[in-house]
């Protein structure tokens, strides 16, 4: 009997199918590049989808100016190495208003520098489709997200009024100004992502690997002191600890975990043996119950 | 158990190696609100260790707050994603869940069980290979059990698990279990399943979920998880004829021309002879190109790029197939349709069909019958409403390549899109092509439209007058025709009222009849255009989509929409035929402008307003426009 495709090869093929479908159906697609591991996988899949040609769309990073320095270095290195067309967008209005997570709190910061900034960028470049690396297993609200997720002219998501999505046939029809967010790795789990990174030897930001890093403990989270913009409370003193990150975002909002995992197999082993979900390290989910769903409705990924 | 914890701890590389060969199973769970479906899925996630401690903490606190298990862990709370639903205690949409064991990764489509959401179940079933149908052991087979079974079989699922749940509440009574299974098998004989596996369960207590239960010593079959880990889903896709729907033409430079897509069925090797279904052109496969190197063979499910030996014309939407086993290629076919939108299906109305990468305008030409999803009875009907299923003939603007869905589940499936709202309004599966499509050829005449129009020194067009009753359509159209006649032009007027006395006298004023009315008038006008005649059509035609239908029948420059934009108050004041008075009194139903909407044209070629200009002035303005559009000049044929 002919061997079936393994689960990773099936997931890979499904993602490539979605990426090609978006490229063929829209005039101005863009791939949102968050520099995290899911983005690394997404980029890898895009390169596979159009080989030997390069992906027929640019990558865009919405920079909140509070990302880890290593993320930015990695981003620029990848762009140079693979030669992709990279757009970096920063909400200048937010910069001028001095918006930051320490001074304005995680909620306002994320809203202005991420959600608003993304909308600004989509409007500025008139993108009609944007790839994102969201997975359905990440959060309950995402379990119901479509692969082609329709957004209104104001970028809103209406969970009560989604287009039914059958088989592998995606409805790409939109009116002017409306757009689609496409999620090619919807059906991947965190474990699938790591296994695939391991199998395909996909480069990821070194922050995922354990190293001695300066951290302070705040509200039960280990926050890395990545630059001197971080105000220390009285009595707080950065300590060097062996830590790594299971998820990457703005450094003041991303909790590190103590770990000795310095290789991919170590990371996967740790992930399988520990029992806390990856989004726990993100402060934005903890703000209020159902917060992810609210953010999604407003246009956050 | 689920993950080999010891191996992970001691030999992670060995573990990773063992995980590379895992397969993937997609299944759907169907059950009504109280069958314990969410509990069943929650427990599978729980037992495969995919619940993390922070989620567990949230689950414990939620269980105390809103749980239905008296403070004990309520697995169901793991699943309901959207806040509002959590409060109502019901799931209203399709949600996808993931878990894995050492043998398989599972993707579960979790769909609601209550009446009004059939479309979600069809959505979830479309990608599933196995259906787990839940039954409350106390209640046995209910109407929704039949409905769920019918829908899953409609979407081509071949393997069913009959999960007889809540066995703990009937004291694990074997006789009752056997009765339920026998009744189900009798019912399911008319569905197209190839296997039915019945398992006595208690999702809440864990009986026969992962481990064989001591409470059912009389049951010797597999546990639910053991069955899901081992059930052989159709390897059929690979054994069917090769099909590659071309998604993307990959052309990075002049030396490379590849055709990218996901193989929907069969297998392909370099050297295989292929045919492009639409054009009939043939070539041989040169290479199977991927990022990871060229392949010696590719099989169903792989996303690949083919290069060919010959330069032949292939574009997105073409289907590549073996020369000896081509798919059907037709512009008319019979299909079963699931309607998924509040706006009813209207036969004759133009829709868009997307089948793989093929997209075309289409009409449901004939709704043969509806199927009652609860009783499977055939019922006559003119439209399909939300969540209704029907068998219909469909005609498309261009021919599509497909296989009957029952022969090849990866072909012959399509979604129906509303041309104006862009909503996905339905889904369909092809039963078979209609042979008459290939037998009736359009008769090409030597004397054609251009020749006929040229003889008359004009260009043949449709002048489509739309506007409210009493707006002055017929009056203005009459004056325009007189002026054209005086100019020596050959004209004809199709008047809404007149046509209803003859050609359309069998039609009423329901939405479905109005669409048919417009279709017939449009088709008639089209023949007149072919005859070289300037054809004036005077019709209220209140719906944008229906005017679009008429427009789509003829060439781009052959349809001129004339909007007689007279305000409703003015029309009602005139009330030439006394109809507004009757409509206001409720004596006429569905009267445009009063009890039925008039959708104003957005891009009419000509707009006139008879409240601030006379009918004579309006007619003059229209004739001037026709002059400008080149309709009245001698029109030289392009040939």
UniProtKB/TrEMBL annotation, chain A:
CDD domains: Sulfate_adenylyltransferase_2 (cd23946). Its EC number is 2.7.7.4. Coiled coil: none annotated. It comes from the Bacteria. Pfam families: PAPS_reduct. The keyword Magnesium does not apply. One of its GO terms (biological process) is hydrogen sulfide biosynthetic process. Pathway: Sulfur metabolism; hydrogen sulfide biosynthesis; sulfite from sulfate: step 1/3. It catalyses: sulfate + ATP + H(+) = adenosine 5'-phosphosulfate + diphosphate. InterPro entries: PAPS_reduct_dom (IPR002500), Rossmann-like_a/b/a_fold (IPR014729), SO4_adenylTrfase_ssu (IPR011784), Sulfate_adenylyltrnsfr_sub2 (IPR050128). PANTHER family: SULFATE ADENYLYLTRANSFERASE SUBUNIT 2 (PTHR43196:SF1). Heterodimer composed of CysD, the smaller subunit, and CysN. This is Sulfate adenylyltransferase subunit 2. The lineage of its organism: Bacteria, Pseudomonadati, Pseudomonadota, Alphaproteobacteria, Rhodospirillales.
Automatic annotation (TrEMBL), chain B:
It is an enzyme of class 2 (transferase). The keyword RNA-binding does not apply. In the C-terminal section; belongs to the APS kinase family. In the N-terminal section; belongs to the TRAFAC class translation factor GTPase superfamily. Classic translation factor GTPase family. CysN/NodQ subfamily. PROSITE patterns: G_TR_1, G_TR_2. The keyword Kinase applies. APS kinase catalyzes the synthesis of activated sulfate. Proposed to provide activated sulfate for transfer to Nod factor. ATP sulfurylase may be the GTPase, regulating ATP sulfurylase activity. ATP binds at residues 467-474. NCBIfam families: apsK (TIGR00455), CysN (TIGR02034), PRK03846.1 (NF003013), PRK05124.1 (NF003478), PRK05506.1 (NF004035), small_GTP (TIGR00231). This is Multifunctional fusion protein. Keywords: ATP-binding, GTP-binding, Kinase, Multifunctional enzyme, Nodulation, Nucleotide-binding, Nucleotidyltransferase, Phosphoprotein, Transferase. It comes from Thalassospira profundimaris. The lineage of its organism: Bacteria, Pseudomonadati, Pseudomonadota, Alphaproteobacteria, Rhodospirillales. The active site is at 541 (phosphoserine intermediate). Heterodimer composed of CysD, the smaller subunit, and CysNC. Pathway: Sulfur metabolism; hydrogen sulfide biosynthesis; sulfite from sulfate: step 2/3; Sulfur metabolism; hydrogen sulfide biosynthesis; sulfite from sulfate: step 1/3. GTP binds at residues 31-38, 110-114, 165-168.
